[in-house]
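Posted in: Structural Biology > Protein-Ligand Complexes

Title: Requesting predicted complex, NAP in pocket

I'd be grateful if someone could produce the 3D structure tokens for the following input. Sequence and ligand are given below.
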Amino acid sequence: MTSKNNISTSKTALISGITGQDGSYLAELLLGKGYIVHGIVRRSSSFNTGRIDHIYNNNPELKDSRVFLHYGDLTDSSNLNRLMEKIQPDEIYNLGAQSHVQVSFEVPEYTAEVDAVGTLRFLDAIRETGVKSRFYQASTSELYGNTLVRQNSHNASLIKSLNEDTPFRPSSPYAIAKLYAYWITINYREAYGLYACNGILFNHESPRRGETFVTRKISIAVARIMTGKQDVLHLGNLDARRDWGYTPEFVDGMWRMMQLDEPDDFVLATGESHSVREFITESFRFFGEEIYWEGSGIAEKGYLQSTKKMVIGIDKSYFRLTDVEFLLGDPSKAKEKLNWQPNTSFKELVKILVEADLALIKNS
Ligand code: NAP
Ligand code: GDD
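-- Reply #1 --
Done. Output follows.
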């Protein structure tokens, strides 16, 4: 891929993970603010720029082209150093990661290479090149693990939400790699005076969410079931609870963290938690259908109220060796210091996903 450095008075950003869910929305947001956006893209045997094709144009003939892609990988430090020197970004958003929790149990070493050491490589590229870049690290609510469940196991009335001061107890190779990334970001801030911040983001979803994450897996399947294209959806732990927000609002929070006088770490969350089961129920309600449940454990099944047809089954291969049962975030600090507030309700979020998948099915 070609690249070029435009001479411009606007800010320049470099995004790792630009081809992912968050990277694509962030690139759009930054373009809207007048940024020149550079992105790191992994070489792939097939096209992997589907989420950004509408904004990316590396054709030098096009005068308004402000997105530039560069081959690279978080496992390759020489490449990161070269990109730093060439692009000299004002802001770096490190969103690139092996981001699937269950997959991290299958590829733990690779996950550590990319998610933990990859973050170090980026920070060190800033230090070594001396480029004055601000750095955003995509930290995660997975860092907390089951802190909330343990805190409240003796008394449900003590349920609290998780904030920047809550201790972490990660419980997957993914979360443990991200814990290293969280702390190395803080260490480089303190040791070298870098503007480096952690966004501790709770789950956020959109029609661009990867299809193997639970929300998108449900919205696609429910749209297919309700249009007669699929019979049954198999899932794992239906009672896991997540604090699910809407991605475009969350990337705005990332940008706000990078505009402060002093770097700091922030939780972005909605402050509401819902179970996978509720997500299923709400998805079927979009079509005016109710679900009822019979059986328990891996024998549990969900049926359509109207036809008594079985539509949800359990498959034990989707259970995790150690799962995070309950996430609920407290975004008070982001509200106060970033003036950030999510506006999309759970019901609206489910509607956005199911509606988009229904449209995809109808147009395919
Ligand atoms: P995603 O859709 O899975 O995107 C991940 C991105 O990272 C993709 O562009 C992927 O490239 C890229 N990538 C993977 N391995 C790489 C490597 N070795 N070198 C360079 N790039 C690599 O994830 P997302 O939902 O947008 O999340 C963005 C970041 O936020 C991730 O770091 C994730 O862990 C973190 N996070 C996400 C959430 C959430 O709810 N979405 C919450 C908290 C934190 P390909 O397109 O080539 O695969
Ligand atoms: N993926 C998946 N597939 N999850 C399922 C399934 C299934 O068939 N059935 C139940 N679940 C449960 C999982 O066990 C988990 O408790 C919950 O649904 C959410 O799973 P995911 O959607 O895969 O997301 P995640 O919470 O593990 O991780 C996402 O959010 C993190 C922030 O908390 C990812 O985006 C991470 O990168 C991110 O850090």
